[in-house]
Amino acid sequence: MPDSVPFLLAPNALILGIESSCDETGVALVQAGAQAAPQLLAHALHSQIAMHQAYGGVVPELASRDHIRRVLPLTAQVMREAGHALADIDVVAYTRGPGLAGALLVGAGVACALGAALGKPVLGVHHLEGHLLSPFLSADPPEFPFVALLVSGGHTQLMRVDGVGQYQLLGETIDDAAGEAFDKSAKLMGLGYPGGPALAKLAEQGDAQAFKLPRPLLHSGDLDFSFAGLKTAVLTQTQRLGDQLEARKADLAASTQAAIVEVLVKKSLAALEATGLKRLVVAGGVGANKSLRAQLNAACAHPGRKGGPVRVHYPELHLCTDNGAMIALAAAMRLQSGRQQANRAYRFDVQPRWPLDAISTALT
Ligand code: KG4
Ligand code: ZN
Predict the structure, then answer these.
(1) Ligand 1, closest atom to CA 196?
(2) CA-based diameter of the chain, in Å?
(3) In 3D, which of 100, 249, 283, 264 has the Cα closest to residue 172?
(4) Per-residue model confidence (pLDDT) at position 362
(5) This model's pTM is above 0.85
(6) What is the CB < 6 Å shell around ligand 1?
(7) CB 95 within 8 A of CB 301
(8) For residue 155, how far is the Cα from the chain centroid?
(9) Strands of 173-215, DSSP E
(10) Could you tell me which of 152, 130, 146, 129 has the C-alpha nearest to residue 313?
(11) Torsion-angle region of residue 113: left (phi > 0), alpha (psi -120 to 50) or beta?
């Protein structure tokens, strides 16, 4: 079959998803038909956090090597748990980008080899599209159109989403991502890597008003973000505190989290107002943050909100951070559009830098 023919999903087709863009190897099996909502049959994940911790951040070469070690055992585990054989797979999906080039190449190489061996098509997926669509696997899936707040370790973006493959960038960070702001602040407080979850946990015991930290670009009138200044302010506070840091750490963590969350909430509301849309989808690792969820829910449900209440949708907590399920899901939803081509030539490339809105027109 030539490459250029759209691939149509058979009823109950099985899509294997492989994620290897950074420091997590994720594999999942999703079942989907031409129309039926995709179902997650099984997924498995190996986090490299413990391995990278000694270095205070991700070491790309170690990440690639570890993906090589993990991907096939995880695939075997997923197939076993789903009660299927490799030969039952209809499509193999992998993360094509953005991410670490070497790490991406592992997933792409394995996916194409598997596709070639099985004689099944292969599909390269955008990692952020996976995050963005991940709430469709939740018990409360959204409907199009919606505003998406994408908050991961490398990206902070507000998108207008009108359908699968229809993504319009509304605003993004001009420097650090929200996840980076969590991680870098946590590092300054000696909370290890990746510090986001640790900082959030410590913040539960602190006073969010204790330190006055900047809310960068809060009143900029656009939908862009900036978090680099916040990190510098946290650095200044840690230096000022000196020996007192240990005793005030929870307060500093709570104040830092409050600054990040306030900006994310205000800008999300501004995006909803600007677009007139009534749905918000929050995706990416920072979307697991409890304080962000609580404050977004409160602000969006507020009866006094200009434009009326807004429904907020999240991925299941365990699917907020990187995983293979969102990659299989994004592939399934693209194939359900009936306009997505799949690769049967088994040539692959990866896209370490790849803006999400660049794939917007691919399906239209
Ligand atoms: O989406 P993700 O798993 O990976 C990327 O694609 O980047 O996001 C990872 C980011 C890290 O910065 C991590 O610290 C942050 O998400 N994160 C959190 C929480 N859980 C993960 N940040 C704040 N609170 C959390 N509970
Ligand atoms: Zn991610």
Answers:
(1) 14
(2) 68
(3) 264
(4) 58
(5) yes
(6) 22, 131, 152-154, 179, 182-183, 194, 196-197, 200, 284-286, 288-289, 321-322
(7) no
(8) 9
(9) none
(10) 146
(11) alpha
**Domains assigned to the chain:** 4-133+319-358 (3.30.420.40), 144-314 (3.30.420.40)
Q: What is the pLDDT of residues 331-364, one digit of tens each?
A: 999 999 888 888 888 998 999 999 998 888 656 4
Q: What is the mean pLDDT of residues 262-288?
A: 97
Residue 364: the pLDDT is: 45
Q: What is the three-class DSSP state of 172?
A: strand
Q: For residue 241, what are its two tokens?
A: 């505190």
Q: How far is CA 124 from CA 26, 129, 254, 336, in A?
A: 15, 11, 39, 15
Among 157, 286, 289, 316, the mutation site with the greatest number of ligand 1 atoms within 8 A of its Cβ is 286
Q: Report the alpha-carbon distance of residue 67 to residue 323 in Å, rounded.
A: 13
* CA distance linking residue 137 with residue 327, whole number of Å: 11
> Tens digits of per-residue pLDDT, 142-196?
999 999 999 999 999 999 999 999 999 999 999 999 999 999 999 999 998 889 9
Structure tokens at 155: 């990206």
Ligand 1 atom having least distance to the Cα of 322: 3
320 alpha carbon, distance to own chain's centre: 6
Distance 352 CA to ligand 2 centre (A): 13
CA of 188 to the centre of ligand 1 (A): 17
